[in-house]
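Reopening this one. Same input as before:
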Amino acid sequence: MSRAAAKFTQADVRRALKGAQDAGFDVGAIEIRPDGVMQIMRQTQPSASTVPIDPFEAWKASRDAR
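Same output, byte for byte:
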């Protein structure tokens, strides 16, 4: 059984990534769907409340809360 032809090439991905970066887009991820659609997602900065806390730091904070 032979492999199906790719709907995109590595050069297509590289070209899309370079175009997004040249436009000032901070690329966080590239999603490629089985139907060949490429989606470039912007990189976001996590807010302080969504950053997971280290288990040791959580333990230390709970001890200091007394």
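So the earlier flakiness isn't reproducible anymore. For the record, The CA atoms of residues 2 and 36 lie 19 Å apart.
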